[in-house]
Write a structure and sequence with these properties.
Helices cover about 55% and strands about 10% of the residues. By secondary structure, the chain is α/β, with parallel strands linked by helices.
């Protein structure tokens, strides 16, 4: 896919074929006609959902009868998972990787295929996230949530007959991930104004339109209506294409994702439960909407920063991951920059941008359409953890969002 754009860039996405709809799996064997040594990758759950069917369709082309079992545990895309998949790849002369799954399986296959310069296909098992065709592979390395450069799959198979049977929380997660685009798009505009970050209006509109299409689908998603689920999946894929066009996740990931990563990382570090990514993104979008409202309704206060207090807080929150967080922020140097004059000069424009985003009440109303109750989220994590997330989730990434604006002018540390 190639798109000449008014922003001056030529946007590209290497995905060659996307097959959606009922019965889409039937096209898989034909789409694999040029390959004869396929490595099939799934986990225990996706094997039962769809992996067996994929195996039967491709059995004559498999180089090695391999399924990425995980023995009942939550599959984490970390060094161990990468090493296990690497060891299987070394057993045979693979010419194509076919992943069966959603977020984690897709990211592992994306990363390994990129490292070994191999093509890969993904057979989607749930409309749960927007990273299927993005350029980044989201991994957890040395305890840190990182996104490494990679290539999207050449082919995506999204069979509605499979997608409608996904666990409800995965359907809710996909819906929530899309609703989160209202937050991240607002962050993109904000950074373009304050930091003069690259901004593409066409890609912005592409993502915004995907969010608008999904906003009204809540009832259909809850009923597992095939048309609603297919529309949701197409929207998630469209957002993935938007990320590929830009070359990073900016059109799809902002403050709401940083909060989601914070809940995930602290959950892993402390052995605590956390919501699926898209559900955390959905709830976090309410938090970021509340921050925008707070900024609009209150006068700024002078920021106070103590590096010692900040480092102590980071160590308490992130534990073994803290050195990586501190190193990242020391490298960026954002805490030592004084952006108050810039914000003061552009305050009217900043406020105008913030007012474009949905209010907290509107975001909560969207989430209620798929039975996501913000009060349950607050009870699940607790006020203290959420408050720490507002202050310190921003430190996990090198991207300016409303979390930084809120910290700079409206909170003391």
């Amino acid at each position: 896919m190639i798109k000449k754009c008014n922003c001056g860039m030529i946007h590209t996405c290497p995905v060659e074929h996307i097959e959606t709809g009922a019965g889409a799996l039937a096209k898989l064997h034909e789409l694999c006609k040029d390959y004869s040594k396929i490595l099939l990758v799934s986990d225990e759950n996706t094997w039962e959902v769809c992996g067996k069917k994929v195996f039967s369709l491709l059995e004559d082309k498999l180089a090695y009868n391999y399924t990425f079992y995980n023995k009942g545990k939550v599959l984490v895309p970390d060094e161990k998972a990468i090493a296990e998949l690497e060891s299987e790849l070394e057993k045979t002369d693979t010419d194509l990787i076919v992943g069966v799954g959603s977020g984690v399986i897709n990211d592992l296959c994306k990363h390994i295929s990129f490292q070994h310069d191999l093509p890969y296909y993904i057979v989607a098992t749930a409309p749960s996230m927007d990273g299927y065709v993005s350029v980044g592979a989201a991994l957890i390395l040395e305890g840190m949530k990182v996104t490494l450069n990679a290539r999207p799959p050449l082919v995506v198979i999204a069979d509605t007959d499979v997608l409608v049977k996904a666990p409800m929380e995965m359907l809710q997660a996909g819906y929530g991930d899309i609703i989160g685009k209202y937050s991240c798009l607002n962050d993109w505009k904000l950074s373009a104004l304050i930091n003069e970050e690259y901004f593409c209006e066409e890609i912005y509109n592409m993502t915004y339109e995907a969010a608008k299409k999904v906003e009204s689908l809540g009832a259909g998603v809850l009923k597992r209506d095939p048309e609603s689920v297919e529309t949701l999946m197409k929207a998630l894929l469209d957002v993935g294409v938007a990320m590929s066009y830009v070359g990073n996740s900016r059109p799809a990931s902002g403050s709401e994702h940083h909060l989601s990563h914070y809940f995930e990382i602290t959950g892993i570090v402390n052995g605590e439960k956390y919501y699926p990514h898209g559900i955390d993104v959905a709830y976090s979008s309410v938090i970021t909407a509340e921050l925008r409202q707070t900024i609009l309704e209150n006068k700024p206060v002078k920021r106070e920063f103590s590096k010692g207090k900040w480092e102590t807080a980071i160590k308490n929150i992130y534990g073994p991951v803290a050195p990586g967080v501190i190193s990242l922020q020391n490298k960026l140097g954002w805490y030592t920059m004084d952006d108050r004059e810039t914000i003061k000069k552009k305050r009217k424009q900043i406020y105008a941008i913030l007012q474009e985003a949905p209010t907290p009440e509107k975001v909560m109303a969207m989430l209620e359409k798929v039975n996501l109750d913000f009060e349950k989220f607050k009870e699940f994590y607790g006020e203290s953890k959420i408050r720490d997330g507002v202050l310190y989730a921003k430190d996990l990434k090198d991207r300016y969002t409303v979390l930084w604006l809120y910290y700079s002018y409206f909170r003391k540390c």
